[in-house]
């Protein structure tokens, strides 16, 4: 992919540090003694995470690094408490301390995250600190009320905030860039079309959408593919917004936005689609989701699930799960199969769009930084920094293969009205959007 | 797909049956008493397999059917022993008894198999008789010597036999039909190209092929993509044939055919490919296969595994496993992931070519029937019937969704030189085969 770097972040951050002379150090015997232990813990942690090429600067100005040359960033640890938390569980506490400005990064945040990502052994990423903190690591469970709380935490923080950095249609999932330099607005439209074409929607068909966000896909399907849509979502802010849009666009006769859980889907449909909801379902509930699909999909129905995924099962990183996406747990492909296998669904196609999500996140992060003044007016400094880290960290994970994006297309086992090849997905659409209704 | 029916089979089969008059029955009191029990067992079996619309004719001419009208076939059971075996385990013994001509089918064999397939409850297919016969159901294990025995059983029965009904290149795996009416020769070339393009082979690269059959893919890769190939196979007849072909085509400098197990692959390669071997590996050995790939694939390497698969894990049907493919066990997608997940491989693309295998089998079965005279000269009647049933049964399973064909493309997690979209697979190749070398 084209390496379009976002603007360096936090270049300006630098404290006012007094570097202590060796003579001074001797006068602080007690402080230095503690410091020796702390340095040892820090060195141990650095080894455990693979010795990333960074320089650490402590609150007294002392610099620590195994890489005197070629460090990608300086990490300032501003107080002893921050250091002690960090060494206990860097995966969880780096984000917390960074958000609270008790740790700061001097240099390009993305370069820093990428450097850490490259060397951090995966086994350690999964284990470090987990044993100590196991009791606190329970992912917040996605029971019916639990799911509502979890979704509210992330999606109900204000539509105006998301408007600042999403595309104009407010699509908060991986876009599809026909070319790497397609702009974000077009790439989101291309994604909506890619999904609709994989589902082979026909005018007059009934579609159920589980987890419909701000309604962009439902609106697109109704407007350009002539289908009726039952769109479920448990985020009340999103549903209110989506209903308003459908009304404005005169599509409220074709789309019903239902503020309810996917488990309560009722009716029979020609297509089931879910874009970016599975991450919040929890692997424990996959069989339940499969049963919902089995119940509501007609014999000749088609389905598509689009979700962040992993190369192998592991929990979401602790900080993101705790502070950004409570209850979230992206699946491996084998885990995803727990939705399909018990019900004899045939997986027809899996497409991994990992680099498309990296590109999407580059756009989002760029827009976020471009609107940082507005974000700062809306939220406190901690929030601003946490979301910067979340966007930059996600971008790094997609770019480095730590996260995947799977689009899985499926149908019932004995359904033979399936495309002979995938060629049709790559042929130009015969009519432009807006004139397509009825021509497909 | 287009429903091109192969010619009806076994139309001519009909015995010389004397239908007994009711008065006659009374004179056979002892026979009828036994018969009542047998009828009960038969009725029970028919219920268990979903009451397919067939008429059964017993050795004394008595007809049994729940469907007086619209039966698709007549099944003749020629002796009491055959009936008793059949009711114990229809999945295993139907094939055995059919091959031995102790059971015969009057009507179109494919229509009969399809009718049975449609009504036979999947749960029963997996369980019926299995408990009773569990000790005998152990799949022949694919240890190093076990795998050799298993492969020898199927692939070393004579190249001349396979030549009768495969395409001219001797490709004994699912073809890829750009259109349903592409002929078999072209569809096999299209498959070889589809695989090479998914692997993005570049001239001068080194490819390892695990399970190379009669060498068609190795020859194609070397000739048209300019790569060198190390091709492994444990079927000695196939290896001898493949070496001869490479020599004839002047490609022996580019291809090494190695008569050895995939577990003994050594060296480093730009691409790993395996077409139709995984079915014989056994799920117990998937992690071992993953370790082989992990060991031999370069950092920027690409991989492709093409295999028959299932919508959910279950053993191969007992008759096929015992008499046709000892040790074979097609995986579900979740099971296949056991190859990739432990080694952090990224699955980039999964394509399900189920209907292409049905179409391939239609061609094979047609050619088999067209050459039935030659087959009869080579083998005994039992073999001829067993292979007819195997080809027809496989065709039915692919057509009805009982079996899948998965092509899985993968790479290492942090390998970003991956195609931006799959568009390139569906663009016309710029140069025809034979002139392509060096231009890709």
Describe it.
The structure is a homodimer of 440-residue chains. With 440 residues, the first copy, chain A, is of the alpha/beta class. Chain A has two domains: 22-136, Nonspecific Lipid-transfer Protein, Chain A (2-Layer Sandwich); 144-426, Rossmann fold, CATH 3.40.50. Chain A contains 18 helices and eleven strands. Chain A has helices spanning 22-26, 29-48, 80-88, 90-99, 109-119, 122-127, 130-133, 144-155, 159-163, 184-199, 216-225, 236-248, 286-296, 318-324, 333-340, 354-370, 372-378, 381-399; strands spanning 54-57, 63-64, 73-77, 103-106, 206-210, 228-233, 255-259, 269-275, 297-309, 345-352, 404-412. A seven-stranded mixed beta sheet of chain A has the order 7-6-5-8-9-11-10. The longest helix of chain A has 20 residues, at 29-48. At the A-B interface, helix 15 and strand 10 of A face helix 15 and strand 10 of B. Strand 10 (345-352) of chain A pairs antiparallel with strand 10 of chain B, so a sheet runs across the interface.
Secondary structure blueprint with pairings:
2 copies of one chain form a homodimer.
Chain A: H1 22-26, H2 29-48, E1 54-57, E2 63-64, E3 73-77, H3 80-88, H4 90-99, E4 103-106, H5 109-119, H6 122-127, H7 130-133, H8 144-155, H9 159-163, H10 184-199, E5 206-210, H11 216-225, E6 228-233, H12 236-248, E7 255-259, E8 269-275, H13 286-296, E9 297-309, H14 318-324, H15 333-340, E10 345-352, H16 354-370, H17 372-378, H18 381-399, E11 404-412
Parallel strand pairs in A: 1-3, 5-6, 5-8, 6-7, 8-9
Antiparallel strand pairs in A: 1-2, 3-4, 9-11, 10-11
Helix pairs in contact in A: 2-3, 3-4, 4-14, 4-18, 5-18, 10-11, 13-15, 16-18
């Amino acid at each position: 992919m084209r390496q379009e770097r976002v603007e360096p972040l936090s270049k300006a951050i630098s404290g006012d540090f007094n570097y202590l002379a060796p003579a001074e150090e001797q006068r602080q015997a007690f402080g230095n003694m503690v410091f020796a232990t702390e340095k040892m813990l820090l060195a141990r942690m650095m080894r455990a995470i693979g010795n990333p090429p960074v320089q650490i600067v402590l609150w007294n100005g002392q610099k620590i690094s195994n890489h005197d040359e070629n460090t990608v960033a300086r990490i300032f640890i501003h107080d002893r408490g921050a250091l002690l938390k960090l060494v206990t569980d860097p995966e969880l506490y780096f984000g917390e301390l960074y958000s609270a400005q008790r740790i700061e990064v001097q240099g390009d945040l993305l370069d820093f995250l990428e450097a850490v990502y490259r060397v951090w052994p995966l086994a350690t990423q999964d284990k470090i600190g987990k044993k100590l903190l196991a009791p606190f690591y329970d992912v917040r469970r996605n029971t019916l009320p639990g799911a509502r709380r979890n979704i509210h935490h992330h999606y109900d923080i204000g539509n105006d905030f998301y408007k600042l950095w999403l595309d104009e249609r407010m699509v908060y999932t991986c876009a599809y860039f026909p070319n790497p330099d397609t702009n974000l607005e077009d790439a989101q439209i291309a994604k909506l079309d890619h999904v609709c074409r994989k589902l082979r929607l026909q005018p007059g068909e009934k579609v159920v959408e589980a987890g419909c966000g701000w309604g962009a896909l439902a609106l697109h399907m109704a407007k350009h593919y002539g289908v009726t849509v039952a769109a479920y979502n448990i985020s009340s802010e999103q549903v209110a917004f989506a209903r308003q849009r459908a009304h404005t666009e005169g599509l409220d006769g074709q789309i019903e936005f239902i503020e309810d859980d996917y488990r309560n889907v009722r009716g029979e449909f020609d297509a089931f689609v879910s874009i970016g909801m599975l991450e919040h379902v929890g692997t424990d509930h996959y069989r339940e989701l499969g049963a919902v699909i089995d119940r509501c999909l007609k014999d000749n129905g088609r389905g598509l699930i689009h979700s962040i995924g992993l190369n192998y099962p592991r929990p979401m990183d602790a900080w993101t799960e705790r502070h950004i996406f409570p209850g979230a747990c992206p699946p491996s492909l084998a885990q995803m199969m727990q939705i399909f296998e018990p019900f004899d669904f045939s997986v027809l196609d899996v497409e991994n769009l990992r680099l498309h999500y990296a590109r999407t996140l580059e756009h989002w992060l760029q827009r976020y930084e471009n609107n940082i003044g507005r974000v700062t007016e809306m939220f406190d400094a901690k929030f601003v920094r946490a979301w910067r880290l979340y966007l930059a960290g996600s971008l790094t994970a997609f770019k480095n293969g730590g996260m995947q994006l799977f689009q899985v297309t499926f149908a019932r086992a004995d359904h033979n009205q399936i495309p002979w090849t995938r060629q049709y997905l790559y042929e130009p659409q015969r009519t432009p959007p807006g004139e397509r209704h009825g021509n497909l």
